[in-house]
Amino acid sequence: MMINADPQELAKFGDLAHRWWDTESEFKPLHQINPLRLDWICGFSPLAGKQVLDVGCGGGILSDSMARRGAQVLGIDLATKALKVAQLHAMETGTEGVDYREVAVEALAAERPASFDVVTCMEMLEHVPDPSSVVRACAELVKPGGWVFLSTLNRNVKSFLFAILGAEYVLKMLPAGTHEYARFLRPSELAQFCRDAGLDLQSSRGLSYNPLTQRYSLGSDTDVNYLVACRRPL
Question: What sort of enzyme, by top EC class, is this (predicted)?
Fold first, then answer.
């Protein structure tokens, strides 16, 4: 099986892995948005007692927080250094109910189809060569009636100005080169990937940043960052 990953992307995040849990580092935005996306997920599917898969878990920010909500979480990634950081953080903090594994989502889908109540894939689709393949694998991994939650970046002039020029070069919230504009996905494109994978799109929300208050919020503006909630039919 061909691995659906970009070696340069894996190396980029691997080099930053030691800073993953530093809330003032390049990963500060992830720490800031995590409570928002966690509550949004729980609004559709309370996590206590659920079997959850976090695809592209990185250093484990979302995986760890879902486990603390009572889920049994498996976080997967292909960035070896980031996974080691996630495992170390879980040991140091005593987080129970979370495990990490270095495996491609497509390979796991072949191994464990229909195994999870909830599948999340946040801030990853814009970093892989074939995002539709990831969505298909997520759909195969979730149980009938289960939920798939995805997030990524829209592709338009506003997202280029805000997510790349603004965030990476003006405000320097992220390292320059974090994102590649051509890999951003319009909501219509992601919706088509979901439909092709047999998922029913239930809801979408935009994630906005206010540079004056330095706060994120969820709303109807999906022009830059956005999240979608899908369900696999029974």
Answer: transferase
- The Cα–Cα gap between 43 and 39 comes to 6
Q: Is residue 122 a known part of a binding site?
A: yes
**Averaged over 51-75, what is the pLDDT?**
97
Helix (H) or strand (E) holding 61: helix 61-68
Place of tokens 């338009």: 156
* All residues at 6 or more sequence positions from 8 whose CB lies less than 8 Å from its CB, including other chains: none
pLDDT at 41 over 70: yes
All residues at 6 or more sequence positions from 164 whose CB lies less than 8 Å from its CB, including other chains: 179, 181
The response to whether 58 counts as a known ligand-binding position is no
Residue 77 annotated in ligand binding? yes
CA dist 22 and 31 (Å) reads: 9
Element of type H or E holding 143: strand 142-153
Known binding residue 56? Answer is yes
Q: Of 4, 2, 13, 3, which Cα lies nearest the Cα of 131?
A: 4
- pLDDT in the model for residue 104: 97
Look at the pTM and tell me if it is higher than 0.90. Answer: yes
